[in-house]
Amino acid sequence: MTARVLVALGGNAILSKDASARAQQAALRETSKQLVKFVKSGDELVIAHGNGPQVGNLLLQQAAGSSEENPPMPIDTAVAMTEGSIGYWLQNALGEELSKNNLAQEVATVVTQAIVDSKDPSFKNPSKPIGPFYNKEKAEEVKKENPEFTMIEDSGRGYRRVVPSPKPLAIKEANTIKAIIDSGNIPVAVGGGGIPVVQEANRLIGKEAVIDKDLASEKLAELIKADELIILTAVDNVYVNFNKPNQKKLEEVTVADMKRFIAEKQFAPGSMLPKVQAAISFVQNSKNPDAKAVITSLENVEDYLNNGTGTIIKK
């Protein structure tokens, strides 16, 4: 039976240690060999992806090369730029893999705007580190030149700018993305969580912020009435008591189970916790009683499709 599946790619599916375009394109060709398996199994595929390293690198490049005549682009525009570049690489790589398998689907990237609340608490408490590291003196200089910036010391590695990470409330292009799926083709959307925008009268205004990719993927999955949200990360399964003698692999679990584990502080904030929270939200909010969220690795995709392995969260 055909399922509508949104696959959210983690950063390891795009970027390893080599940040060159050639290396990232090569990584996505390997990723596409896994993604095409969903299409071959008869599923309707939607792809979301992260862009944290790419935005960070772009901000570094801008910091090194900007001038009064050639000023750096704001963060919302940097997110759009990386949505476009990663989308292009994905379209190209997955298109090649579809062609090799005699599949007729086409791939289209939608540069996606995620609507957020201008009163989201994160705007008063920015916490997401982005861009280059600075020593204390340089950080003070950057702050003086940009009084609106918030700078913090980041894990002993230097000072960085932090920006808000608001919760996505809606996806502006959700109907367009759904139309691409309904036409039998494959959209790439909400790259890097989408471009954060706020609604003011008839205008959408970009904000200096970044949105969690998994939360944006969940919101899109909900709006397009997906049957499955698959969050790909570095491990085949979620664990409780991780790295302890009583470590336990989670396989089939319920929303109630996962809420209990969150209360026990089993999942690391900024790492596995947002993935679990996104998975719970999708299953809870879906009108489909059989909806499920899956957290597993890219390498485990085939085994998931054939044998149902991974951490599977149901109502």
Automatic annotation (TrEMBL):
<protein>
    <recommendedName>
        <fullName>Carbamate kinase</fullName>
    </recommendedName>
</protein>
<comment type="similarity">
    <text>Belongs to the carbamate kinase family.</text>
</comment>
<comment type="pathway">
    <text>Metabolic intermediate metabolism; carbamoyl phosphate degradation; CO(2) and NH(3) from carbamoyl phosphate: step 1/1.</text>
</comment>
<dbReference type="InterPro" id="IPR003964">
    <property type="entry name" value="Carb_kinase"/>
</dbReference>
<dbReference type="Pfam" id="PF00696">
    <property type="entry name" value="AA_kinase"/>
</dbReference>
<dbReference type="GO" id="GO:0005829">
    <property type="term" value="C:cytosol"/>
</dbReference>
<dbReference type="InterPro" id="IPR036393">
    <property type="entry name" value="AceGlu_kinase-like_sf"/>
</dbReference>
<dbReference type="InterPro" id="IPR001048">
    <property type="entry name" value="Asp/Glu/Uridylate_kinase"/>
</dbReference>
<dbReference type="GO" id="GO:0008804">
    <property type="term" value="F:carbamate kinase activity"/>
</dbReference>
<dbReference type="GO" id="GO:0019546">
    <property type="term" value="P:L-arginine deiminase pathway"/>
</dbReference>
<keyword id="KW-0418">Kinase</keyword>
<keyword id="KW-0808">Transferase</keyword>
<keyword id="KW-0056">Arginine metabolism</keyword>
